[in-house]
């Protein structure tokens, strides 16, 4: 799927990847209204007007790039995903808060009970959208009674937070672009979405509570650990979050994390990774030398087969190929 590199009107899309380019302001306005659900007005543009939009959408998160050589104003809806915009060129202005985002700046847009007004001037930028339920899941300490989450600022507090966000987004973007099949793989999409959500929560100030309770300590028992381990062993081929593990163990997220650290010296996600790596080992051994490491690695949720090879060698003392007992 591709669009023309020359300034012409052209668009293409499939279920997960979409690309649109045009030199017609009216068509760009119609497209933006349909794609983002926003009421948009193009205020000014030059004779060299151009618009280009690319999107990779997985369901729980999306990655967009936008190049719009015009001054536009739009009013977004109240049911949009949580969105982080980075300005590469031009200017983005939050008209409601009177905040101006220039080159290199990150800006957060979250769900509100009213429409949100924005002006963009010759903007080239990238956008990351995350489903609110994914962010709420990652933020919740008690899986049965998650606390209300509210962002207290729409800009990162420190330059280090910006760098970390860009590193994570770069890693996720490179992964889904290098292997198109990852877009539909639940063992990759789910962890990527939660990685973005967790990074979002450490990038933009919010009210996410990290307080511990007495039952987080008293519930970190061997019985809870056994329930969690049984759940992981039986469902390693599914997209599993730490909230799912806590629910299966019938304790809080913090309690199940304590149980793994206390009794096994590891974390729930690290233990799940070890289980999946063992399944990789088993499949590669059963399939013999003909097994392709990248395909098997992706089957078990590993985006980088090189890391699988290194982890496999570290865990089992040999590279991922047919073992001597065969």
Q: What does the model show?
A:
- This protein has helices at residues 25-36, 132-139, 159-178, 186-203, 214-218, 222-234, 242-249, 253-264, 268-287, 293-299, 305-316; strands spanning 10-13, 17-22, 39-45, 51-57, 61-76, 82-94, 99-101, 106-109, 116-130.
- The two termini are 44 Å apart.
- Strands 1, 2, 3, 4, 5, 6, 7, 8 and 9 form a nine-stranded antiparallel β-sheet that branches.
- The chain has 326 residues and is an alpha+beta fold.
- Helices cover 41% and strands 23% of the residues.
- A hairpin with a 4-residue loop joins strand 6 and strand 7 (99-101).
- It has eleven helices and nine strands.
- The radius of gyration is 23 Å and the shape is globular.
- The chain folds into two domains: 1-211, Jelly Rolls; 272-316.
Task: List strands and helices in order, with pairings.
Layout: E1 10-13, E2 17-22, H1 25-36, E3 39-45, E4 51-57, E5 61-76, E6 82-94, E7 99-101, E8 106-109, E9 116-130, H2 132-139, H3 159-178, H4 186-203, H5 214-218, H6 222-234, H7 242-249, H8 253-264, H9 268-287, H10 293-299, H11 305-316
Antiparallel strand pairs: 1-2, 2-4, 3-5, 4-5, 5-9, 6-7, 6-8, 6-9
Helix pairs in contact: 2-4, 3-4, 6-7, 6-8, 6-9, 7-8, 9-10, 9-11, 10-11
């Amino acid at each position: 799927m591709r669009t023309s590199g020359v300034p012409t009107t052209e668009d293409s899309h499939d279920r997960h990847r979409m690309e649109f380019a045009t030199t017609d302001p009216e068509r760009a306005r119609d497209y933006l209204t349909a794609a983002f659900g926003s009421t948009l007005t193009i205020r000014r543009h030059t004779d060299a007007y151009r618009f280009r939009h690319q999107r990779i959408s997985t369901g729980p998160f999306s990655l967009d790039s936008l190049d719009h050589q015009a001054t536009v104003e739009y009013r977004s809806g109240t049911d949009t995903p949580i969105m982080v915009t980075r300005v590469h060129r031009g200017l983005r202005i939050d008209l409601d808060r009177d905040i101006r985002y220039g080159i290199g700046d990150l800006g957060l847009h979250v769900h509100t009970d009213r429409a949100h007004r924005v002006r963009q001037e010759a903007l080239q930028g990238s956008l990351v959208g995350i489903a609110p339920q994914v962010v709420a899941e990652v933020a919740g300490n008690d899986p049965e009674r998650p606390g209300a989450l509210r962002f207290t600022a729409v800009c990162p507090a420190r330059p280090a937070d910006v760098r970390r966000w860009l590193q994570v987004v770069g890693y996720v973007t490179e992964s889904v672009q290098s292997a198109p099949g990852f877009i539909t793989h639940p063992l990759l999409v789910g962890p990527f979405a939660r990685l973005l959500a967790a990074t979002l929560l450490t990038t933009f100030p919010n009210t996410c509570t990290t307080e511990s309770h007495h039952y987080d300590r008293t519930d970190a028992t061997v019985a809870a650990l056994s329930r969690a381990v049984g759940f992981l062993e039986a469902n390693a081929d599914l997209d599993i979050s730490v909230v799912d593990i806590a629910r299966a163990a019938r304790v809080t997220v913090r309690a199940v994390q304590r149980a793994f650290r206390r009794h096994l010296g590891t974390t729930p996600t690290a233990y799940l990774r070890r289980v999946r790596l063992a399944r990789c080992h088993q499949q590669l051994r059963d399939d013999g030398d003909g097994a392709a490491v990248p395909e098997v690695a992706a089957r078990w949720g590993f985006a980088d087969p090189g890391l699988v090879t290194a982890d496999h060698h570290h865990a089992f003392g040999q590279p991922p190929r047919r073992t001597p007992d065969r």
